[in-house]
Amino acid sequence: MPLHMIRGDITKIACDAIVNAANSTLLGGGGTDGAIHRAAGPELVAECRTLGGCAVGEAKLTKGYRLPADYVIHTVGPVWQGGNAGEAKQLAACYQNSLRLAAEHHLESIAFPLISSGTNGYPRREAQEIAVCEIARFLAKQDMTVYLVQYTRPEGQLFYPEIERWVSANSVRRPEPFAAFAMPNAAPAAAKEAKAKREHSFLGIHKRAVEADAMEECAAPAARQFPSLAERIRRKDESFSQMLLRKIDEAGMTDAECYKKANIDRKLFSKIRSDPHYQPKKVTALAFAIALELPLDETNAMLQAAGFAFSHSNTFDLIVEYFIRKGIYNVFTINEALYEYDQLLIGA
């Protein structure tokens, strides 16, 4: 099952369990902790009083009461002290123990806040990297849908200056054809000039096409060899599904290894495997290209088989291309960058 990184209110997430970034008393506090207690109602704090608190890095489970989630898993994150007091190990334990507890109770979905990144002062990028790393490690062996929920991105925070430079240097603005005619206030002279240029261009294209047709008609029959429609159909490129399954076999991967590495749900992969004409979304096609660690030309071929292409007028495409050119094929690392730019995520 995939990892979803989303922005929103964790108390509104309908899933089997949400995780509360609690304090050691488990009796409520500020930030996410207080919001969860308020949404769950007084029954939650009453049950928490029976648990005897919780140590940093540990996790305990209660009912969800008035929340849309069935359960709340309470975990106590570390307070940031500069990074040399074992904070990273403690924060990783929060995710490990929460996921273990969810698996022990046979839960199928769980939503995490970004633990310790609020009042505990843990730097957000480091906190996010630990969260994604531990969740990805768990999902490599277990089937569960996991949400990493952040309410909003703090203003002015940009964690990928190198990607920002790449996007700025390679971005191509979409052309705005016939702008002079689209604007009612455009000067008549400008409109007339634009129209003349456009007609000249069309005439030039038409003339070249006519000349090419004439040359082709004069060519020797043996040189032209136009295939019949039936022959063209026989020569048609393999479908996306056929290409994907072939490349999985060539890579020596199992199906599970591939769809987990792609951050793709098992049920979706089953649909792709059973339907040779399955038409995926672009994020799905790219997810498998990343999982198979295809170079840029082969990634483009897989996209084309699905009916898509890379475009330098698209921020999403530029970011994904950046990672492929760098040889970075960790879908979760790529998704962290896409998430920071408010783009769609690969796979999930």
Label this structure with key terms.
348 residues; alpha/beta; Leucine Aminopeptidase, subunit E, domain 1; 16 helices
List the SSEs and their pairings.
Layout: E1 3-7, E2 17-22, H1 31-40, H2 42-48, E3 59-63, E4 71-76, H3 87-104, E5 109-113, H4 124-139, E6 145-150, H5 161-170, H6 179-182, H7 188-218, H8 221-224, H9 229-234, H10 240-251, H11 255-261, H12 266-274, H13 282-291, H14 296-305, H15 315-326, H16 331-340
Taking Cα atoms only, what radius of gyration do you get, to the nearest Å? 27 Å
| CATH H-tier superfamily of the largest domain | Leucine Aminopeptidase, subunit E, domain 1
Percent range for β-strand residues: 5-15%
The count of helical stretches stands at 16
Shape: globular
- Class by alpha and beta content: alpha/beta
- Looking at the structure, the CATH topology of the largest domain is Leucine Aminopeptidase, subunit E, domain 1
SSE topology string = EEHHEEHEHEHHHHHHHHHHHH
Into how many domains do the coordinates divide?
3
Estimated helix fraction: 40-55%
Q: In CATH, what is the class of the largest domain? A: Alpha Beta
Main pleated-sheet profile: 6 strands, mixed
Low-confidence stretches: 176-187, 198-224
Distance between the termini: 9 Å
- Identify the CATH architecture of the largest domain: 3-Layer(aba) Sandwich
Topology, number of strands: 6
For the residues shown, what is the average pLDDT?
Answer: 85
Question: Largest beta sheet: what is the strand line-up?
Answer: 1-6-5-2-4-3
